[in-house]
Design goal:
CATH superfamily of one domain: Galactose-binding domain-like
Structural class: alpha/beta
Number of strands: 24
CATH architecture of one domain: Sandwich
Helix content: 25-40%
Shape: globular
Number of helices: 13
Mean pLDDT: 84
Largest sheet: 6 strands, antiparallel
Distance between the termini: 48 Å
CATH class of one domain: Mainly Beta
Amino acid sequence: MRMSDVDTDFKTIKANGFNTVVLAIPWAEFQPVFEPCCLYNDVAFQKLDLIMQKAEAIDLKVLFRLGYLWSFDPTQQAPGMERSYMPFTDDRALEAFAKLARRLADRVQPYKYFSFAFLSWEDFFLHGLFLEENRAKTQNTVLETQYKYFLRETFSLQQLREFFPNQRIISYDDVPFPVSEVTTKNGDSRLVLFHRFWDYLLIERLFKHILSVFPRLTMEVRIDGDRFITENSDLKWLRHFDSYEIPQSDIVVGYYAPFWGMQNKRDFIGSNRAIEQLRVLIQEMREHSKKRNVFIDQLNFFDETPGFEDSIRIYPNQINQFLSDAAVVLSSSVGYSLWTLKDYVHSYLYNASFQKEFKGWVTKGNPGILRKNQFDRTLLMKSGDQVSQEIPSWRGIELPEKIQARFCLDAGARSRDFAGYVTVGNEKEKFHTALKPFSGNHACWNSALPSDGSVFTMGVEKGTIEIETLYLFKFLYKSELYPFHGEKEGEYLRGIRELNRQLLSFAPDDHYQEPGRTPNVTGIFEDNWLDRCQEALKIDPLSGANIDPPPGLKITQNRYFSFSSIFPPLEFQCARRCVSPSVCNFRREYL
């Protein structure tokens, strides 16, 4: 992200009816080195401050996805998926991540528009660690000790004997270690234990530890079921409901896609069917989380990700109807977000906008860096200049070979006679692309996908060019809302705007309703449901006591506010922008 684009992006977000932005906070970008603890990236924190200030200036609330996995920093320890394992196998890595979380919690304390953060199971993906061939990576680690705790807290020995009827289990030490894939036989209960153990680790080891330093925290839970073929060849779905009761949080985070809960056979469904599935998902999350409030952090109504071609999709001509109808269902949640409002590419290049100047690059000739503002830079190249970068395999995502790789660039300026080249490859094979003259400030050419150990090189043969950003990619993630470049509106933007208009029109006292009960006031606090500033009562619905509300708060016979503090203990402060003197006086008199 170029910092000069933030204001425009935030205005676009706001103009389409959103009131909140979710920021992915990459662990390795903010803390590239965790052992010895710790090396921090001060520039990343400075950028975060600026983004928070810009969000507050335009009246956008901010959420964090804390611990986002992807970072291409070449100096980071444990890159890629390896880092996602570390908090579970190494106490030092877990403690380092907690120190980062504490630093971030302190950093956002002054920003009243910061709402909460969440961890996502997707950033702590343990499937590869528990493959049978990787057993050596888990032996003699804290993970083995955690496994014994998990077994004792979750199962009796008799239950485990039923899991493994052909094995002699006298003590918990006799229980096989979990595996994430079973290829030898059906009914292998090691797979069941893997998913149960993964859920346990996410809450008991990771979440609770980070919660102790970042109180305004919740979790994106695993809403998908995992296939398990029984010994009788029956299909059973392993669900993850035990992890839905997030400790000390009134919010549980999930995601939606049309394929959830469906038989995926490369088919389409209508808007009504998709709405029903969304309703069932939210109801299920509420039920199994003991009535926690649901936040859908990814409303994936449209998805063309390669490798998921078999997934069910909504008929394209019914997507806008789905979005409009989704408002009623989502009104029973605390909101939703989109993965992206704009198409983007999965680029393999690090520091491709040269904000860190030449970090990660090898230069030849005399290319220069031009400073545009505190953070943004451009690359100036002339005839004979060259920049190169090695691309390790862990930066990539596996995609079908039939997809054509592309190279693109954003140019600030260039001479009319510009000509250059791009080379991608290794010692065995290299692909050369000639960069011919082009019009406008954005251009693309066919290129090659890097293999492990490939080097990307761009050079100038003639003229000069000022480069804002380079892209080397094989996959363009489409939102059908705004294009990768340009401002042309996509066909589903109308539905998004209608969805947001309806959500913001609902009255908050229609949101939480419990008919037929008389409330007893046990607290008063600020509530900002869907960014609507409210003074709310915290009540005990089981009590028969009655009390008159202060001015501005209304309790009717069958409907009343029934909120609870999202992240207790949430200190009540009269100085907060939503709280009137009448409520503060009421608090002092009655509580």
